[in-house]
Amino acid sequence: MVRVTFVDVHGVEQAVAGEGDLSLMELAKANGIDGIAADCGGACSCATCLVHVDPAWVDRTGAPDDVEYAMLDMVSDVAGDTSRLACQIRLTPALDGLRVVVAQQ
Ligand code: FES
Protein backbone atom coordinates (compact mmCIF):
# COMPACT_ATOMS: atom_id res chain seq x y z
CA MET A 1 0.00 0.00 0.00
CA VAL A 2 1.36 3.39 -1.02
CA ARG A 3 -0.18 6.49 0.54
CA VAL A 4 -0.13 9.79 -1.33
CA THR A 5 -1.42 13.22 -0.38
CA PHE A 6 -2.68 15.29 -3.29
CA VAL A 7 -3.42 19.01 -3.06
CA ASP A 8 -5.96 19.45 -5.82
CA VAL A 9 -6.49 22.49 -8.05
CA HIS A 10 -8.82 23.99 -5.42
CA GLY A 11 -6.17 23.70 -2.72
CA VAL A 12 -7.99 20.81 -1.03
CA GLU A 13 -5.77 18.10 0.47
CA GLN A 14 -6.79 14.52 -0.09
CA ALA A 15 -4.91 11.55 1.34
CA VAL A 16 -5.43 8.42 -0.75
CA ALA A 17 -3.78 5.03 -1.05
CA GLY A 18 -3.30 2.39 -3.68
CA GLU A 19 -1.48 -0.85 -4.29
CA GLY A 20 -0.22 -2.81 -7.23
CA ASP A 21 1.52 -1.54 -10.33
CA LEU A 22 0.04 1.96 -10.54
CA SER A 23 1.23 5.31 -11.77
CA LEU A 24 0.62 8.42 -9.73
CA MET A 25 -1.84 9.52 -12.44
CA GLU A 26 -3.79 6.25 -12.19
CA LEU A 27 -4.04 6.65 -8.43
CA ALA A 28 -5.30 10.22 -8.87
CA LYS A 29 -7.91 9.19 -11.44
CA ALA A 30 -9.09 6.26 -9.32
CA ASN A 31 -9.72 8.68 -6.49
CA GLY A 32 -11.25 11.54 -8.47
CA ILE A 33 -8.54 14.08 -7.76
CA ASP A 34 -9.62 17.38 -9.35
CA GLY A 35 -7.22 18.78 -11.91
CA ILE A 36 -5.82 15.49 -13.23
CA ALA A 37 -7.51 15.13 -16.62
CA ALA A 38 -4.98 12.67 -18.08
CA ASP A 39 -6.42 13.12 -21.56
CA CYS A 40 -3.88 10.85 -23.26
CA GLY A 41 -4.36 8.00 -20.81
CA GLY A 42 -0.76 7.97 -19.67
CA ALA A 43 1.02 8.08 -23.02
CA CYS A 44 3.11 11.11 -22.01
CA SER A 45 1.58 13.24 -24.76
CA CYS A 46 -0.90 15.66 -23.14
CA ALA A 47 0.62 17.10 -19.94
CA THR A 48 -2.83 17.29 -18.32
CA CYS A 49 -1.50 15.24 -15.41
CA LEU A 50 1.07 17.84 -14.37
CA VAL A 51 1.94 17.93 -10.67
CA HIS A 52 4.48 19.69 -8.50
CA VAL A 53 6.27 17.22 -6.27
CA ASP A 54 6.92 18.35 -2.70
CA PRO A 55 10.62 19.30 -2.73
CA ALA A 56 11.29 16.83 0.09
CA TRP A 57 10.31 14.00 -2.29
CA VAL A 58 12.06 15.03 -5.51
CA ASP A 59 15.03 12.74 -4.91
CA ARG A 60 12.73 9.75 -4.59
CA THR A 61 10.45 10.51 -7.57
CA GLY A 62 13.51 10.99 -9.76
CA ALA A 63 14.08 13.06 -12.87
CA PRO A 64 11.99 13.05 -16.05
CA ASP A 65 13.31 11.13 -19.05
CA ASP A 66 13.85 12.90 -22.38
CA VAL A 67 10.28 12.35 -23.65
CA GLU A 68 8.71 13.64 -20.44
CA TYR A 69 11.15 16.53 -20.34
CA ALA A 70 10.07 17.54 -23.87
CA MET A 71 6.42 17.58 -22.75
CA LEU A 72 7.26 19.60 -19.64
CA ASP A 73 9.04 22.09 -21.86
CA MET A 74 5.72 22.84 -23.60
CA VAL A 75 3.61 23.68 -20.54
CA SER A 76 3.54 26.97 -18.74
CA ASP A 77 3.05 25.96 -15.11
CA VAL A 78 6.40 24.28 -14.67
CA ALA A 79 8.16 24.94 -11.39
CA GLY A 80 11.77 23.96 -11.97
CA ASP A 81 12.75 20.41 -11.21
CA THR A 82 9.74 19.72 -8.96
CA SER A 83 7.34 19.50 -11.91
CA ARG A 84 6.50 16.03 -13.22
CA LEU A 85 3.88 14.29 -15.27
CA ALA A 86 1.98 12.05 -12.86
CA CYS A 87 1.62 9.32 -15.48
CA GLN A 88 5.38 8.94 -15.57
CA ILE A 89 5.80 8.31 -11.83
CA ARG A 90 5.41 4.65 -10.86
CA LEU A 91 4.26 4.14 -7.31
CA THR A 92 6.71 2.04 -5.34
CA PRO A 93 6.96 1.45 -1.59
CA ALA A 94 9.73 4.07 -1.52
CA LEU A 95 7.08 6.68 -2.37
CA ASP A 96 4.82 5.86 0.58
CA GLY A 97 3.91 9.25 2.08
CA LEU A 98 4.49 11.23 -1.14
CA ARG A 99 2.92 14.69 -1.33
CA VAL A 100 2.17 16.48 -4.61
CA VAL A 101 0.33 19.63 -5.66
CA VAL A 102 -1.80 19.40 -8.81
CA ALA A 103 -0.82 22.10 -11.30
CA GLN A 104 -3.24 24.71 -12.58
CA GLN A 105 -4.08 23.88 -16.21
S1 FES B 1 -1.75 11.51 -18.87
FE1 FES B 1 -1.16 12.55 -20.67
S2 FES B 1 0.88 13.17 -20.22
FE2 FES B 1 0.25 12.16 -18.43
Automatic annotation (TrEMBL):
Keywords: 2Fe-2S, Iron, Iron-sulfur, Metal-binding. Its cofactor is [2Fe-2S] cluster. The keyword Iron-sulfur applies. It comes from the Bacteria. InterPro entries: 2Fe-2S_ferredoxin-like_sf (IPR036010), 2Fe-2S_ferredoxin-type (IPR001041), Adrenodoxin-like (IPR001055), Beta-grasp_dom_sf (IPR012675). GO terms for biological process: P450-containing electron transport chain. It holds the Pfam family Fer2. Residues 1-105 form the 2Fe-2S ferredoxin-type domain. GO terms for molecular function: 2 iron, 2 sulfur cluster binding; electron transfer activity; metal ion binding. The keyword Iron-sulfur applies. PANTHER family: FERREDOXIN-2, MITOCHONDRIAL, FERREDOXIN/ADRENODOXIN. Belongs to the adrenodoxin/putidaredoxin family. This is 2Fe-2S ferredoxin-type domain-containing protein. It comes from Sphingobium yanoikuyae ATCC 51230. The lineage of its organism: Bacteria, Pseudomonadati, Pseudomonadota, Alphaproteobacteria, Sphingomonadales.
